[in-house]
Amino acid sequence: MFKTFANAIQSLSVALLMGLPMASSAQQLSDNAWIVVESPWARASLGMSRPGGAYLTVRNEGNDPISLIGLRAKISDMASIHETRTNSDGVSSMAPADDIMIPPGGMIALEPGGYHAMLMQLQSPLVEGETFPLTLLFSDGTELEITVPVLGIGARGPEG
Amino acid sequence: MKKVRIVLWSAVVVAAAVSATLWMTERNQGPVAARVDPEAESFTADFELTDHTGMVQTDEDFRGRWMLVFFGFANCPDVCPMGLATIAQVMDELGTQGSAVQPLFITVDPERDTPSALANYVPQFGQGILGLSGPPDQIERTAETFKIYYQKIEEASAPDGYTMGHTSSFLLFDPEGEFVRIYEYDEEPGLIVTDLRERIGA
Ligand SMILES: [Cu+2]
Description:
heterodimer, A: mainly beta, Immunoglobulin-like, ten-stranded mixed sheet, 1 helix, 10 strands, about 45% strand, globular, B: alpha+beta, Glutaredoxin, seven-stranded mixed sheet, two-stranded antiparallel sheet, about 35% helix, binds copper (II) ion
């Protein structure tokens, strides 16, 4: 299951961390981790009938490329990563994203107009001031649970 | 665990196939309406739509004020809330000068975005923003005169099985209803405010 012993240790540390409550919305892993998730935020939803959107950045501090391959969330029965593209005519549309590769030392951002966590079939509304857990799925089998704060519906970024 | 992994991977494969198909479909549908070019284009706003309070509104109703027009749909989780948030922040920063500007959100998804549906959506971003809807043929005519593009994109996983592609730029019209320029939906609100102030004051 694990290619290397180091991999196993890393996955184990993530598994251990996943059980801990996470207070900080900035860096969501301890210093022995190689995937760092920062600035998560979601926009408040109006009820549950329309999809919600969430954003964050992921840094790969390990020595190998890693891909973000998907999402899971209790709050959404259908969570996936979407990509918005705007063509040269100024026409925007979104579609499910391919795996997003993060090179060693690299960073990817889920941000408005680029990638977003698309939270369909919401099981409860995203309420401003509350938080919800979101699990990021990586190509090496790592599953990383983070805590996403819900900002106002008019938020444009992690600072509101 | 292994089973979960396989299921996840197949989901990824399906998603990749779907997205590849989508981009191809989009490309195969030929050229979209040309991008509004502030230099080359000259046209007057022309529409008759129903606002989110149920009142019929035409372009003439807004003569004497600048119109900041944004096309979108309420089921859009990324571009549309971002654009509406940008407009809301622009209006906040304009303060009293904001009375010279009427922001309009025109739906490209009239099937779902009825006036009453927009009433629960648009004002959440800012009280001054007016949501406009109407029968599909009126929306189509409006899009034509505004030279904007929209398209229904079939997507099995999306709510109701579809999402929309649409022009995401804001269109600015002067107090005579003449098209002036576009702004991008994710532009820094302060830059739009500076530009608007110069024009309003002029
Ligand atoms: Cu999406």
